[in-house]
Amino acid sequence: MASNKTYLFKQSINRMLTQIEELPEGQYTMANDMELTRQLNISRTTVRACIEHLINNGLVKREGSHKIVLRQPEDTDFFDIENKASTKDEQIEKYFMSLIHHGELLPGDRFSELSLAKNSGCTTISVREFLIKFSNNGLIKKIPRGRWQMVEFDEAFAKELIDFREMLEMNALNDLLRAPKDDVIWSELADLLRAHQEVRADMENRYMEFPDLDKAFHFKLRDKKPNRFINQFYDIVSFICHYHYQWDKNGELERFTVACNEHIAILENLISNDHASAVLAMKQHLESAKKTLMGCVHGLEV
Length: 302
Prior knowledge:
Elements: H1 7-21, H2 33-40, H3 44-56, E1 60-63, E2 66-69, H4 88-101, E3 110-112, H5 113-120, H6 124-135, E4 140-143, E5 147-150, H7 155-177, H8 185-201, H9 203-206, H10 210-221, H11 228-242, H12 252-271, H13 275-296
Antiparallel strand pairs: 1-2, 3-5, 4-5
């Protein structure tokens, strides 16, 4: 489903389609994977996923190591990533988080404001403001000449984050449980439950859709009490818990499956008005999240 593709994937597809449109007359072969990796500043994994998408949509075919263009792109082949309701802050955040989630930025990696601006379609001012905001959490740091570096977070930071998250999310759950039964939140939670169930039914193929569900789930829980300071905290949570670059990618399917099942248990208990079970399910989910996060910090035990 197109809506479940990441911003980086959609943007990379659009850039490949533009490259196809701009091929010289009589040339019907795309650049090789290594060259696309360099041109688009994405990983080979992302390149392969994008090429597979183009093949499935009848735009190209593989002949050995070559990618032969079968037809010119149509307007419907492009993803709509402009999202006029989205601010530049949201646009750079989507792009930056996608880089981290796909392993394009790793601990110790350096990157420039200019390259982020160019590849995300944002201004350097928007990029700089976004990076300054996230530098406050200690996970990226400024280095000379408009450059930044990814850094690790330590045990103390992780434990403080866990304690604060537990307090906020249990408080949000209790607020939600007090919502009237005719509140629109309950139909929205039912929609979210169905989205989780659809992904779980084909988890092996769709597990990469879970981070977006994860973020939607935790943001929806606090929907009854919006708070700008809590919003800032959840920006950090998204950065670390949903997109953290130190996670072993080989364990993602298992972790996402566990978390998806825990979300479903919470949502089912909320919708069925079983308050006690909803609270217990949330406590279980937060305990699992604690073990996962602490495991990111040099294999620490909780």
